[in-house]
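User:
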Amino acid sequence: MAEIAQTRTPLLPSIPALERTPFHPRLAELNLANAWEPWRGFVTASLFYDVEDEYFAVRTGASLYDVSPMLKYRIAGPEAEAVVDRLVTRRIDRLKPGRVAYAPWCDGRGRVVEEGTIFRLSETEFRINCAEPQLTWFEDAAWGFDATVADVSQEIAGLALQGPTSKQVLQDVGLDAAAALPFFGIGDFATADGVSVTVSRTGFTGDLGYEIWVAPDRALELWDALMRRSEARYLRPIGSRALERTRIEAGHILINVEFVSARRAIRESQTRTPAALGLDWAVDLSKDHFTGKRALLAEREAGGPRKRLVGLDVTGRKPAHGAYLYRKGKEVGQVTSACWSPIAKRNIALATVDASAAGEGTVLDAEIYYRKEITQGKTDAAATVVPPRFYQPAHRRG
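Assistant: Predicted structure:
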């Protein structure tokens, strides 16, 4: 009987669907929970072993979080400052070399495209770090200027070193000058082992912290040097679950959670202006020009945004994930992020509410749903509007 030819139809790609960061070999060894999730096409840890241990490492010791998947864009050239100044809402001519600024950038309607950190590396070179692809947006902004835009994401690996003992960790590996950086400072250094790094006094946890940027081929050397101090400094690798709790405590917004990019939103109701996100302080309407300025001026003249981001102090201990908010029986908003804060010992949340309900001290009714084994439970709680910075330790600027 003649053999029947067998054909194989590949159902899966022959390469991993998600890329691995330069730190992945060390992360995989330590990830006892084998808990992973995707981030911008890379596999990243959501949990290593115990979320409470990881959380308290951030708040009482030090932590390492792999930020390599973050997108990084270099804008360089004689007119690089003019490009960045036109792009973002802040005065970039006031940002000196060796300093970092945080700022949003908007479309022509004044809706936030994204926000991120801006590193001024020299008079003619900047690097912008953000969460979503922005290459074409930045290239459009640079059109007609004597400046170039390049995606350098794959050229730079990164670690967020955060927590009260992070300064001592840097000193332990020979980065004394980096440890002494001022808040939102940046510089180039070398470890005692000769690994060249760029260190910025930045982070996403609201605590004392740094971000360390290194060439991918030196990433594991850097990791090993830092982790040799794990026991002495209570230094732990952390995943996104612990980071998320610290983010909420710090009151930091997250794209696709507190807002949707104006470039990608299907519904305009999901977009926000800087003022609606509490970023009024990062907008300078006295600038000659930036994308979205006229729309933001019109918003201010009309009395401000119709919705605002607020913090909430919620009674009880059930986190108000996605809770609907009411005032005198009328729905006025919804919770975007929520958690129980161990360090503040409070049930906290970030929420978008009608401007009329955003005044500090306003008490709203929260309708909270939660899992109750195999059923869904429901409870009502009082939610008081408070400033959305729940944890700001004095040592974070020290």
